[in-house]
Design goal:
411 residues; alpha/beta; TIM Barrel; 12 helices; binds flavin mononucleotide
């Protein structure tokens, strides 16, 4: 591979952009050693607080979230690490001794200035390359291990405290999409002097309710609680947050939320991420995914003619505009490919449900009445066998000849 996957993140050069996100995978020394050996450039350790020992985990810790039997995410009710700060410090020392070129980032959580600063300083003294502040966890807030802040003012204050404590060591602030204005918070982090943001943490969620027992999931001996949503279901929100932050601040961004494949990673990079934190996919497929992530990303960059990640990062941002700036008056119509159509009739019903009657049943199959189709895309989105294309009728197309297909660029 001739392309270079190295990237600068908060002033530190990383061998590739893939980071093990804080999770049970980064709470065990043996797993971290395996991960670094396998090619991960960076690991963010499971979050630790001064009083981590007061939390106690309950099980099951995670629930599968699915849609039509497909895995779309996890909900976890995990808390911070049950290890002590001393244990985590020792983990940093051991890892840095064995892997001096790998980047080890403790994730800290605290509820007073003193605790934020003490924790940060202790980890820097132990050899940490960077500090990540997990300011807010979507569940378990009643354990009082952290300020209940996510909004700009509180976040800026914490970022300042930690930066003041660790000086030149880079500080990354992990943000939440539950923040009412993630842009304002990112701007506040930039003002604080911190070096980067991680976006996003899990989102507070409920997996579902068991219709037999009437108890929400996860059922922990007859009771349930709120959890944090992660995995593919989070990706569109994490992409949005990445782009919004990238469009508004100059901070380095570690994206987190639903990155499973190298393709997902490439999308986040194109929208402004400089690094990619992965948790659920590692829990699902193991730390070995790093090989395919690096290979796939490298090959794609080569094919696209990108020589380095700096050419990729943020490359798609100029295409993202306000709704009012989108081009108007461009006609789009649906076209059903008769050989692919399975005659299920879904397109007819969705067209009607969407307020139109542009698809009719004729000659034993659904057909589009071109001059009634507004090009909303519902039939294209809902077709189970992908037999419907969206086309932009050119002058020739109106005469029944060549049409410009636009759905290929929207899949
Ligand atoms: C079981 C589990 C435990 C987690 N623990 C932490 C944690 O201790 N600190 C933290 O900042 N994020 C934690 N996270 C959030 C992940 O680091 C990550 O930000 C989130 O899951 C979204 O990424 P993903 O979709 O790749 O999982 C945890 C997630 C899971 C699923």
């Amino acid at each position: 591979m001739s392309v270079d996957l190295a990237v600068d993140f908060c002033g530190i050069k990383l061998e590739n952009p893939f980071i093990l996100a804080p999770s049970p995978s980064t709470d065990h020394l043996d797993l971290l050693i395996q991960a670094f050996d396998a090619g991960w450039a960076v690991a963010v350790l499971k979050t630790v607080a001064v009083d981590s020992s007061i939390v106690s985990r309950v099980f099951p810790l995670v629930m599968r979230i699915e849609q039509e039997s497909a895995f779309i995410g996890l909900q976890n009710i995990d808390l911070v690490s049950e290890h002590s700060v001393e244990f985590m410090e020792q983990m940093v020392v051991t890892l840095k001794k064995r892997f001096p070129t790998k980047v080890v980032i403790p994730s800290i959580m605290a509820n007073s200035k003193d605790d934020w600063q003490t924790l940060a300083k202790r980890f820097v003294a132990a050899g940490a390359d960077m500090i990540e502040c997990s300011i807010w966890c979507p569940h378990g807030a009643e354990w009082s291990l952290c300020h209940k802040v996510q909004e700009p003012v509180g976040t800026e204050q914490i970022a300042r405290w930690v930066k003041e404590a660790v000086g030149d060591t880079p500080v990354v602030i992990k943000l939440s999409a539950q923040d009412s204005d993630i842009i304002a918070t990112a701007v506040a982090v930039e003002r604080s002097g911190a070096d980067g943001v991680c976006a996003i943490n899990t989102i507070k969620s409920i997996t579902g309710v068991n219709l037999e027992t009437l108890i929400p999931y996860p059922n922990v001996a007859g009771l349930s609680t709120y959890g944090g949503l992660s995995g593919p279901a989070l990706k569109p929100i994490a992409l949005r947050c990445t782009a919004e932050i990238a469009q508004n601040v100059k901070l380095d961004i570690a994206s987190s939320g639903g990155i499973t494949t190298w393709q997902d990673g490439a999308e986040f990079l194109l929208l402004g991420a400089s690094t990619l934190q992965i948790c659920t996919a590692v829990l699902r497929f193991g730390i070995g995914i790093i090989e395919e992530l690096c290979l796939g990303l490298g090959k794609w960059m080569e094919e696209k003619g990108f020589q380095s990640l700096t050419e990729v990062i943020g490359r798609s941002l100029p295409y993202l505009v306000e709704h009012s700036q989108l081009p108007r008056g461009i006609q789009v119509v649906a076209q059903i490919e008769s050989e692919l159509c399975n005659r299920c009739g879904t397109c007819l019903s969705v067209c009607r449900a969407g307020g139109n009657e542009a698809i009719v049943w004729r000659e034993g199959r659904p057909q589009v009445i071109m001059n009634q189709c507004i090009g909303c895309g519902l039939c294209h989105a809902m077709c189970l066998v992908q037999a419907i294309h969206l086309v932009r009728p050119s002058g020739a197309a109106k005469a029944g000849k060549e049409r410009v297909r636009i759905d290929a660029i929207n899949r």
